[in-house]
TrEMBL record:
GO terms for molecular function: L-galactose dehydrogenase activity; metal ion binding; nucleotide binding. Residues 16-288 form the NADP-dependent oxidoreductase domain. It comes from Oryza sativa subsp. japonica (Rice). Transmembrane segments: none annotated. Mg(2+) binds at residues 127, 129. Keywords: Metal-binding, Nucleotide-binding. It holds the Pfam family Aldo_ket_red. This is Os12g0482700 protein. The keyword Metal-binding applies.
C-alpha cells in the first residue's frame, strides 16, 4: 500500500489504518494469540497506523495493542500509534490534571515512551470551551515533553471541528479523527475537507463499515443508528450477498477512494479481516471499484443518505 501524508505532521500513514477498539473486546472476545496474529499480519502487509483509546474495553485495548506490538518486535519508528484522553469507562474528564495523568497511564499500558498522536476523545461530551481553553493548552505541554508528537480531536458531530479550530492557535491541533461520516451511506465529511486543508489539519476517517452496519453480520446490539438506517444497510448487505458479492469490500474501497483522507481506520480483530481489508485496498488500486454494484448499493441507501444520530451534550 502506498503511504499517504497526514496533514502537516510529516507522518506517512497507510491508507488502511488498524482500529484497535475490537482488541478491547467491544465487538466480542478476542483470544490473545488471534490479536497478536492480527497485528503481526497488519505490519507484514504494510499497515503502519494503529488507533486505540483508554476508553476501548476500559483500558483493555491499549494493553492488548501494546502487548501485540511488543510481540511483533518491530522498531518503534516503523509504526504510528494514536491514543486518546478525556473519555474513560467511568465517564468524561478533559481537565488539565486528568489529561496529564492520562497520557502517562496510556504510555505505561502501551509500553511506549511516546505516542505519535494524542486525541481528545469525543469532545462533544464536554463544553467545547474547556477543550479550547484548558485541554488543548495542556496538550501543548505534553507535546513539548515529548510524550505525544501530535495532537488531535475526535467526535461525531462535524460542527465541533470548526468550533475548536477557529479558536485555537494555528498548529496546536494537528489532526482530526471523524467517524461514520465518510462511507457509502454517509459522506458528510466531504464538505469539511477544504476547510481542514486550509488549516493544514490532517484527516483521519474511521468506521468505513459504519461500525458494523455495512457487514454481513450486521451491527452490535449497542449500535446507536436509527432503525431505518439499520434496515436500509441490512437490505444493502443482502443485495450484495445475493449477487455473490461482499458489502464490506465495497464499503472499504469506497472510503479509501478519497486521497484527501489520509487513513481509513477499520476495526479489526483477526488476521483474516486484516488480509481482506488490505486486499480490498490493493484491488482498488489495480482494478478500481465495482461501479455497477456501488450504484446499486447507493440507490438502496439513498433514502437514508447522511442519516446520523445525536451524540454528546447540547452546546450553548
Ligand atoms: N471517536 C473516536 O475516536 C472513534 C469513533 C469510532 C471509531 N474509531 C476508531 O476507528 C476504528 C474503526 O471503527 P469501528 O471499529 O467502530 O467501526 P468499523 O466500521 O471499522 O467496523 C468494525 C466492525 O467491522 C468488522 N470488520 C472489519 N473488517 C471486516 C471484514 N473484512 N469483514 C467483516 N467484518 C469486518 C469488525 O470485526 C467490527 O465488528 C475503531 O476501532 C477506533 O480505533 C474512533
Ligand atoms: Mg470511540
Amino acid at each position: 500500500m502506498e503511504l499517504r501524508e497526514l496533514g502537516a505532521t510529516g507522518l506517512r500513514v497507510s491508507p488502511v489504518g488498524f482500529g484497535a477498539s475490537p482488541l478491547g473486546h467491544v465487538f466480542g472476545d478476542v483470544p490473545r494469540d488471534v490479536a497478536r496474529a492480527a497485528v503481526r499480519r497488519a505490519l507484514d502487509l504494510g499497515i503502519n497506523f494503529f488507533d486505540t483509546s483508554p476508553y476501548y474495553g476500559g483500558t483493555v485495548s491499549e494493553s492488548v495493542l501494546g502487548d501485540c506490538l511488543r510481540a511483533a518486535g518491530v522498531p518503534r519508528d516503523r509504526f504510528v500509534v494514536a491514543t486518546k484522553c478525556g473519555r474513560y469507562r467511568e465517564g468524561f474528564d478533559f481537565s488539565a490534571a486528568r489529561v496529564t495523568r492520562s497520557v502517562d497511564e496510556s504510555l505505561a499500558r502501551l509500553g511506549l515512551d511516546y505516542v505519535d498522536i494524542l486525541h481528545c476523545h469525543d469532545i462533544e461530551f464536554t463544553d467545547l470551551d474547556q477543550i479550547v481553553n484548558e485541554t488543548i493548552p495542556v496538550l501543548q505541554k505534553i507535546k513539548e515533553s515529548g510524550k505525544a508528537r501530535f495532537i488531535g480531536i475526535t467526535g461525531l458531530p462535524l460542527s465541533i471541528y470548526t468550533y475548536v479550530l477557529d479558536q485555537v492557535p494555528p498548529g496546536s491541533v494537528d489532526v482530526i479523527l471523524s467517524y461514520c461520516h465518510y462511507g457509502i451511506n454517509d459522506t458528510a465529511l466531504v464538505d469539511l475537507l477544504p476547510y481542514l486543508k486550509s488549516k493544514g489539519v490532517g484527516v483521519i476517517s474511521a468506521s468505513p463499515l459504519a461500525m458494523g452496519l455495512l457487514t454481513d453480520n450486521g451491527p452490535p446490539e449497542w449500535h446507536p443508528a436509527p432503525k431505518e438506517l439499520k434496515l436500509a444497510c441490512r437490505a444493502a448487505a443482502d443485495h450484495c450477498k445475493k449477487k455473490g458479492k461482499n458489502i464490506t469490500k465495497l464499503a472499504m474501497q469506497y472510503s479509501l477512494m478519497n486521497n484527501e483522507i489520509s487513513t481509513v481506520l477499520v476495526g479489526m480483530n483477526s488476521p483474516e479481516q486484516v488480509e481482506e481489508n488490505v486486499a480490498a485496498a490493493i484491488e482498488l488500486s489495480t482494478s478500481g471499484i465495482d461501479k455497477e454494484l456501488l450504484h446499486e448499493v447507493e440507490a438502496i441507501l439513498e433514502p437514508v443518505k447522511n442519516m446520523t444520530w445525536s451524540s454528546g451534550i447540547e452546546q450553548a
